Amino acid sequence: MYTSTKLPRTSALFLSALLGGVIFTSCASSERSANRALPQIAADGAANPASAPARESSLSQKAETAPIARSRPQLIKKAAISLTVNSVDKTIDAVSQIINKQQGDLIGLKQQQPKSDNPRYTATIQLRIPENRLEPTLEELAKLGTVDSRNITAEDVGDRLVDFQARLTNLQKTEANLQKIMDRAGSVRDVLSVAQELSNVRETIEQIDAQLKSLQNQVAYSTITLNLEAAVSSTSPQPAFGLQVQETWNNSTHSLSAFSVGLLKLGIWLIVYSPYLLIFAALVYGFKHWRQNHSPRLTQTPESTSSE
């Protein structure tokens, strides 16, 4: 009993000692670097007391005058343009050529044929273009028809990218430290505990890395939503005389076949229900015959006539 309770305490103390050693080493290294700098500054000040204030003032001036380095804005750009064109089909083919020329991708296409409520032929195309080719692509698309509307929106995600990158770096350092602790762990319980923590850190690293790559991809490629609308209603021309005769013949033969099928179906229904129809007809005939036999006669007999 004594041995079984002593091992977990020993493993816990061992883990605590390792974690404390890692933290203490990082803190000690920062303090050591600071302590090295302090004696050097003190020695310089003692060797040349007059130059110390000048050195401090020059350092402060450099810190004040040093420009803050600003990184390039990380923008997610989205554009939308609406065109009125003469032929939607030909315009779609021209858009495909522009996509290939600008090294982009077609990510969506929706066509709507003319209807009674909307007699115009419309189409919606979604494109993905490299960010540096957005403006040239919009200019080429505008030449395909009459521009009805055009807008561009941009969202700066630079802070989010920096945050994801910093979190990813810290988690990778934590993963490396946990791996070192796992290599030093002795008991099975310690190894399993550190392995579970290492798995959680790895899962978080993969999630943040996926979000980071998604944002970087959205920054690198801009999206364009292109709306096309035909200039005139797409009504079909009047068919030729022969086509009209053929269409009339097809409609008439179809109507005749439908009427014949209807009569055939009616005959089948009558045959199936014929016993009930015969019973009903017999009842009607019997009722009429009974009524004729039992109804009073209106004509007078010869005996009644002679008595009068």
Overview of the structural elements:
By secondary structure, the protein is an alpha+beta fold. It has a five-stranded mixed beta sheet with strand order 2-3-5-1-4. Helices cover about 65% and strands about 15% of the residues. The chain has helices spanning about 1-45, 50-65, 90-100, 135-140, 160-185, 190-220, 240-270, 275-295, 300-305; strands at about 75-85, 105-110, 120-130, 145-155, 220-230. Helix 5 (about 160-185) runs antiparallel to helix 6 (about 190-220). It is built from nine helices and five strands.
What characteristics describe this protein?
alpha+beta, five-stranded mixed sheet, 5 strands, disordered N terminus, 9 helices
The percent range for helix content is 55-70%
Global geometry: elongated
Helices and strands, in order, run as: HHEHEEHEHHEHHH
Category from helices, strands and their pairing: alpha+beta
Question: Mind sketching the topology for me?
Answer:
Blueprint: H1 2-47, H2 51-65, E1 75-85, H3 88-101, E2 105-112, E3 122-130, H4 134-142, E4 146-156, H5 158-184, H6 188-220, E5 221-230, H7 241-272, H8 274-294, H9 302-307
Parallel strand pairs: 1-5
Antiparallel strand pairs: 1-4, 2-3, 3-5
